[in-house]
Amino acid sequence: MKYRLLGRSGVKVSELALGAMTFGTEMGIGVEKGESRKVYDRFREEGGNFIDTANVYNKGTSETFLGEFMAGERERLVLATKYTGGMRSKDMNASGNSRKNMMESVHASLKRLNTDYIDLYWVHARDPLTPVDEMMRAFDDLVTQGKVLYVGVSDTPAWVVAQANTMAELRGWSRFVGLQIRYSLIDRTVERELLPMSRAFDLAVTPWGIVSSGILSGKYNLDEKATGRASARGPIDERSLQISAKVMEVAEAVGATPTQVAISWLLRGPANIIPLVGARTVEQLDENLGCLDVHLDDEQMQHLNEVSAISHGFPHDMLSQSGSSRAKQIINHREWFSG
């Protein structure tokens, strides 16, 4: 395991982060404490120090399990959790990004995690009802109080993140150092605005959905009736199966699994990318960690990029297609004005 800086900070985190959504069974997709502990221990044995959870994961059980697992080594970990989602029904103020929900959520998470501080506190998703300045000032208060060390943002439009970080910079508040988004070979739409924005603000990117609900594992390619079938991500279309087929082809060439190739492609992506790997078993985690031993050459990367290419839309496509001619026009205009 190698390490990367957590965005514009001095914190070193493992190049893969462990997603703890599967710790607990209340959401129907996780496992009991014993298996969760095995996954946690294996991640730590392999040098992983970056762990990500949220208050709503399995109704708080994920945080509770981690509070027990981290006992005795809390300081060695970079622990991330989130707020936005509500933990109390029929309470309109128990969700969203308001100062009220933030303060109540962080105190509840600290208790479940059995810790005095959270290394990275994420806003889980955009709340259009809460003013950006209210949210960023409240984050800065948590940092000042020592309850939170760094802040990040998840599942939020690029223009909102840019607005928030620019405002924080101008007012001397704590800035976002991380961005959590959905990103995979099948869904590259974040390359239009979110990834360029992450580079501009030096944000670490922790993508989720990295194998697109199992589509990139290749399992659906073996099913002749897979097209149109619903996955957790939505209906499986022919394009997704074509991308998965190319991943399987590359995997065979490099002696890896399709899942490992899909994650390896992300690690070479156009940003400071730290993929979130989730696992219900140690065997699944070991397969994910195996991506670190996979090397994709430039030709293989090109094949994967071509089969999964997307339109970047206006104005990106226009500027890309006419970039050379526009550059010549600008040079000619400068020469005309200077002459």
What features would you highlight for this structure?
339 residues; alpha/beta; TIM Barrel; eight-stranded parallel sheet; two-stranded antiparallel sheet; 41% helix; 13% strand
Explain what you see.
There is one protein chain. The chain has 339 residues and is an alpha/beta fold. The chain has one domain: NADP-dependent oxidoreductase domain (TIM Barrel, Alpha-Beta Barrel), CATH 3.20.20.100. Helices cover 41% and strands 13% of the residues. The chain has helices at residues 33-45, 61-69, 99-113, 132-145, 158-171, 194-200, 238-254, 258-267, 282-289, 298-307, 316-321, 323-338; strands spanning 3-5, 12-14, 17-19, 50-52, 78-83, 118-123, 148-154, 176-180, 204-205, 230-231, 234-235, 276-278. Strand 8, helix 6 and strand 9 form a beta-alpha-beta unit. Helix 7 (238-254) crosses helix 8 (258-267). It is globular. The model has no long low-confidence stretch (mean pLDDT 93).
Uncertain spans: none
Q: Number of helical segments?
A: 12
**% residues in beta strands:** 5-15%
In CATH, the homologous superfamily goes by the name NADP-dependent oxidoreductase domain
Please give the domain count.
1
CATH top level class name? Alpha Beta
Structural class: alpha/beta
Distance between the termini: 57 Å
How much is the radius of gyration in Å?
A: 21 Å
Helix content: 40-55%
What gross morphology would you assign? Answer: globular
| Oligomerization status of the protein chains | single chain
CATH topology: TIM Barrel
Strand order of the largest sheet: 9-8-7-6-5-4-3-12
- Architecture, CATH level 2? Alpha-Beta Barrel
Number of strands: 12
Biggest sheet features: 8 strands, parallel
Order of helices and strands: EEEHEHEHEHEHEHEEEHHEHHHH
> Can you give the mean pLDDT?
93
